[in-house]
Please model this.
Amino acid sequence: MPILVAVTLVIVGVAGVIWWLGRDAGDDGDAPAAADDTAEVSEDDGSDEQPAVDDAEQSEEAPATSDAADASDVPDASDTPDTSASPTSTTAAVTTTVPATTTTITTVPPENPGRFGPPSLSNESTVSTVGLDEVNFGMTVAAAQEAAGTVLVPAGPIGACYHVVPHDAPEGIVFLVHSGTIERVDVNSGPIMSRSGVGVGSPESMVTDLFGDQIEREVRVDGTVDLVYVPRDAGDQNYRVVFNVSEGAVRAFKSGRLPMVMLDTGCETSQ
Model:
C-alpha cells in the first residue's frame, strides 16, 4: 500500500511538470505572432511612414541649399582684385634714373626784365665748347646778363651753386652758376643747337659722324648713353660737350667746364 501511494504521487508530479512545460512552450510560440501583428500594423499605417519620407527629403535638400549658399559666397575669378598693378606690385629691383641734364625749372618773372636789353639770345643761337653765343663760361652773373641782354632768373635758392634761366630767350636753356661764375649751359628742349648743327632730336649717328674719334661713349645707369666730345685744342682741354642719347636720338645736351659739365646737376661738388 505505501508503494502504491508513492507511485501515484510520482505519476501526478510528472504530469504536473509536463503540463507546466507545455504551457511555457505555448506562450513562447505566441510571441512571434504578436510581433508579426505589430509589424503588419506598422506597414498598413501610412501615416507613420509619411513623416519619415518628408524628413528624408528635407535632409537631402538641406545640403543642396547650403551648397548653393556656399557657392554664392565664393568669389569668381573675375571678382578677385588684381594686385599685380599695385605700387608695391613690383618688388623688382629699382633702377635709379639719373637725369641727363638739369631738371625742368619754373621761375618767377623778374620785376624789371628789360633792364639789360635788347635780348641777344634767339632761336639761331648756338652752343660751343666755351659758351652760348656771347655768354661764355667763367663770366660773372652780372656780365652774363649783359651779354644775354636779359635777366638770369634764379631757379632756386642762391648759394655756392645754383641754376638760372634767361628770362627773354628760347625755351630749354639753363645756366649753371658755381662760385659766382657761369660754368655750364644745359639745353633740354627747344631750337638751340650746337655750332655743328646738333640739337635735341638729332640722330645719334649725326654726332658720331661729325666728331669721330673725339667722342667718348659712356653708358648711364638709366640706360641712356652720353656721347662726350673731347676738344683737341690745348686751350680747350678743360671743356666738354655732352650729348645724351636715348633710342638713337639726342634728348638733351650740355656744354661747360670740368668738373661741373660731367656731373648730373652740376652742383654735387657743393653738397
The longest strand covers residues 249-257.
